[in-house]
Amino acid sequence: MVLPNGRHCLGAAMRYMRSVPARRVCCQLRRPLTTTHWTPSVQGTETTQPPNQDRQSQVATDSGKGANANKAPAIRRFWRDVSVGEHDGDYVVLLDKRPIKTPDGKLVRISQGQRVLAWLIAGEWESQKETLNAHSLPLTSLVSRSIDGLSNPNMRAEVINRLLNYFQTDSVCLHDTHPRALVDLQQKYYSPIVDWARSTYDIDIQITSDIFALRQKNASIERLRNVVSELSPLKLAALERAVMSAKSFLIGLALVQLRITVEEAAMAAQAEANAQTQFWGELENAHDLDNTAMRQVLGASACAAIGA
Please, is 74 exposed, middle or buried when counting C-beta atoms within 10 Å of its C-beta (0-12, 13-18, 19+)? Predict the structure, then answer.
């Protein structure tokens, strides 16, 4: 499968997603034995068993035996060809000419304005080897999340409230006075994000060095609530994933609004850890895994946000 030429940022994001697997599982997969489709299951959802299915009941019983009772059985690749098709004016990803679906059984549809995203999702499935690596389908997970969850008004309101809690004590608003290495990193990566948010949304953002005094004004919170409420379901899903990964509302917002790159977002989110590394040195393998895991999630969020 040949991917169409895309922007450099998409290529960079995909390289992050193709590298060392993340420790956190971005999505899980299940294959209901009553259908011919595999449905991507977003993190946090449970797999339900259809009634009166002797074969599935036997699989569930067998998988619960022994020391690996809580370990899901490996899922082997069952398709040969991956392609992108069209359905009612949207793009769909096809596995042997059958479209992939969400955990709720809905078609995974990508808008006409996001053709590159459709091919990136196809690339996720094409890159699977003999068995599926669920954590290597972050874009599939994001689109499924937007369709099954964030199209619901009540779910959207709940997610927006949770994300705005991060803004109350946002890490990019906490500027230390020492050590020098940390101060320099915060000035380099935090300040541009804060300045952008202030000027773009005309809000007052409080900056302090005292974590116990860090609180934002209600007017600023409500202004950002209005901004986020206008995001499409897919862009909100990307924001949610970015904020949860970076532990910062402003970093996530700047990323999905394409104001900063994936690398800049990761460096801002890891400013304190990087300052510690400069002083104490790097812990072999552990830091590499953390760095790659974060860039995988942020890269997927940036790709999903383009054109959403």
Answer: exposed
